[in-house]
Structures are given as C-alpha cells and as structure tokens.
C-alpha cells in the first residue's frame, strides 16, 4: 500500500541539522503515527513520503520554506527584564507562551544584555534546512473516525477519554 492522502502512516525518523546534530528522533520511543495529507507533518516531509510504501527508507533535506518557515525579523523583540514576573530567573534558552497582538505565541529567550532581553517568536527550527532519515514502518487505511478527527486513534495513536 502506498502513502497517499488519508492513509495512516507509521515511521521511525531521525532529524538532523546541517552540521549533522540530531535535533529529534523516534529512537527509543515507538514510531510516529500520522495521517497523510492532513497537515500533521511539515509539508516537505509529507511530500517526500508521498507514494512510498512500507519498509521503504527515505532520506530527504527540506528547505525552511517547506519546513518551519524562514526566520522573520518582526518576530524578534527586545523587552526590559523588568517585564518578567521573576526578572532574576530569566535565562537564555527559556521558552514560554505570551499573549501577543495576534494571539498566543511561543517565545524563546535568545539573548540577554544587561536589562534587555531578546525574545524570538519564530519556531526554534525556522530558517533551518532539516535533514530527515525515515524508515516507513507501516501504511494502512484510516478509519472514518480518524479522518473525521484528523488524527490517529487506536492502540498506536491518540485515545479519547
């Protein structure tokens, strides 16, 4: 069975950056389950897996435009350290959510210079080429319920309680 829209796919994967550093991997966990064509994965990875079958191995490099987007300067802000509830505990690498003009936004502290804290609202992987090494574990039909909900159910997927 080939991977195409509405198929449930399970994969093992390793994601690395340009330097070969592992950013994410399913190693040591169960495979990742998703429904093809429902935006569960970044567009470039869905495109690379389209038409592939169980046991295929796929190596692909995905540009930022088909990954987490290009870095946008307007998503980077400098604010005073005093805006934080616990100003002395702020450190580079901290991540949090904040209510912004266009809704909730994930922010990462990328620099601190004196009283100025630089916050980046870009996805941490924005602007990066992503290198995926994927083993396709299985491909199956999605149930009507899975298609209605847009995610995988059952022993290997999401459960409703």
Looking at the structure, the CATH topology of the largest domain is Chitinase A, domain 3
Total domain units: 2
Please identify, by name, the CATH architecture of the largest domain: Roll
Rg is 19 Å
Number of DSSP strand runs: 9
Helical stretch count?
2
Portion of residues in beta strands equals 35-45%
- Helix fraction, binned, reads under 10%
Mean pLDDT value: 92
What spatial form do the alpha-carbon principal axes imply?
A: elongated
Structural class: mainly beta
Low-confidence stretches: none
* Main β sheet profile: 5 strands, antiparallel
Query: What is the element string, with H for helices and E for strands?
Result: EEEHEEEEEEH
- Give the termini distance in whole angstroms: 31 Å
For this structure, what is the CATH class of the largest domain? Answer: Alpha Beta
Structure at a glance:
With 161 residues, this protein is mainly beta. The protein has helices spanning 43-49, 144-149, and strands at residues 7-16, 22-25, 32-35, 57-62, 76-80, 95-100, 103-113, 116-120, 130-141. The strands form 2 sheets. Strands 1, 2, 3, 4 and 9 form a 5-stranded antiparallel sheet that branches. A 4-stranded antiparallel sheet has the order 5-8-7-6, with no helix packed on it.
Write the layout of secondary structure elements.
Elements: E1 7-16, E2 22-25, E3 32-35, H1 43-49, E4 57-62, E5 76-80, E6 95-100, E7 103-113, E8 116-120, E9 130-141, H2 144-149
